[in-house]
Amino acid sequence: MAQAIQSRGPVTGTAATPRKRRKFFLLDLYGTAVGKKYAMAITGLMMVGFVVVHMIGNLKMYLGAEDLNHYGEFLRELLVPILPRTVFLWLLRLGLLAAVAIHIHAALSLTRLNRKARSVKYQSPRDYQVATFASRTMRWTGIIVFLFVIWHLADLTWGFANNVGVPAADGEFVRGDAYGNVVRSFERVPVSVLYIVANIALGTHLFHGVWSLFQSMGWNNPRFNKWRKNIAIGVATIVVVGNVSFPIAVLAGIVGK
Amino acid sequence: MSNHLSNLTLKIWRQNGPADAGRFESYRIDSISDEASFLEMLDVLNERLIGEGLEAISFDHDCREGICGTCSLMIDGQAHGPQRGTATCQLHMRKFKSGDTIVIEPWRATAFPILRDLMVDRAPLDRIVEAGGFITAATGGAPDANIIPIPKPVADAAMDAAECIGCGACVAACPNGAANLFTAAKVSHLNLLPQGQAERWSRVEAMVETMDDYFGSCTNHGECEAACPKSISIDFIAMMHKDYRRAKVKNRKLLSQV
């Protein structure tokens, strides 16, 4: 049986024949399954950071239109005048886009690896002992969240989905009027239901993902290991409760024109 | 005073060789003592099959006291059967009820080809150990106790990892067919101890990358820990991930000295 360990070349400094050229360090690391898990953990952490900040920012909705729209303008003016307007925001967006791309690429190639590792499935039903619903459905909740994000952008960033099914009297999508756009969007009941379902999928994904990233990165310590699950539950709960409250608040008339 | 179980139905995977498609076949056990071990139950069945001129069912077994790691079997969808922290050889029929249907399948992983019936080839686990699961320095005879002081918690943790008997239940139970728990146990029991420090970083890099060549990747379900007959904790997997991360940097630095 061929041992492909030889293909990666010597792993110690005392090995006899040094190779001429080595792969770029991060690419070499990303070439291994454990390395891809590091990538998933780090990019996942970046996205968790975004999701939490995004939810907290949106809470401004409860302070009224002026506060929310002012906050939106603040994001565009981050680091002004060091950088021109929206430049830093775009840097953040590009970082986030890169994280999404890497997260999905790693997930796809690890899934392919895992399928290959059990090419013949068990022919009798498995009796899982500790795998949770969340851990077993990561791929599905991930796909749901990804599709939802595309809708979310079409709805509240690009705006072309914001006008679908809205009576003409309610006006049209206005760039920069985040508050009005959100209210117009959530007054459509099916859209609110979509946001709620997608956020529950997101919470399920985070529940396993946040715990999992500690394990993948090897951030373990007997003193805080028991907190890792609690942190995951906490992050998932805060994000879901916060995000789900927005469509409900609009439908209940707490947030409105 | 022992009781007897009656009317058991066994659905057992039969496969004539690695290339054969294989199928489940049903066998009836009319009566078996509840003090029989699971493997003894299969022995009784095999005696009967041989008496009838049929082919006996092949399955792996050796010490039958839970220390050699030879026995396997996916019993009712669980690696090593329904009892936690126990290898199949120490599972007893009292865990089952009269009239039960018990499904027995071999372990399935691309790295573990089925040789015959319930027997699989677990050689890739040996490849992982060959890559670094040893200490190169000649250590001579057994040293006197406590010549090398090792803190008690460290010795305990190393011992917990060293409990691994290499049965492969972690791979069998993992939805991804990953061997991270096995590799982590074999890495950690040496990497925790002073004797293992000299080769710590080359060991973890070589063993993880050999594991990569045969097995799937860890998605932190925790099924391996639940299936492990020695209940080895997935904390060791996190420890291995940490050591691998550090090893990649350190070994890279060493390589650039050459």
Your description of this structure?
The complex is a heterodimer of chains A (257) and B (258). Chain A has 257 residues and is mainly α. In chain A, 63% of the residues lie in helices and 0% in strands. Chain A has nine helices and no strands. In chain A, helix 2 (33-58) crosses helix 8 (189-217) and helix 6 (138-156) packs across helix 8 (189-217). Mean pLDDT of chain A is 91; it is low at 1-7. Chain B is of the alpha+beta class. Chain B has two domains: 4-116, Roll (Ubiquitin-like (UB roll)), CATH 3.10.20; 122-257, Alpha-helical ferredoxin (Fumarate Reductase Iron-sulfur Protein, Chain B, domain 2), CATH 1.10.1060.10. In chain B, a hairpin with a 2-residue loop joins strand 6 and strand 7. The longest helix of chain B is centred in the last third of the chain and has 21 residues, at 235-255. The termini of chain B are far apart. The model of chain B has no long low-confidence stretch (mean pLDDT 95). The chains are: A mainly alpha (257), B alpha+beta (258). Chains A and B meet through helix 1, helix 2, helix 4 and helix 8 of A and helix 2, helix 6, helix 7 and helix 8 of B.
Which characteristics define this entry?
heterodimer; A: mainly alpha; 9 helices; B: 258 residues; alpha+beta; Ubiquitin-like (UB roll); Fumarate Reductase Iron-sulfur Protein, Chain B, domain 2; 2 domains; two-stranded antiparallel ribbon; 8 helices; 35% helix
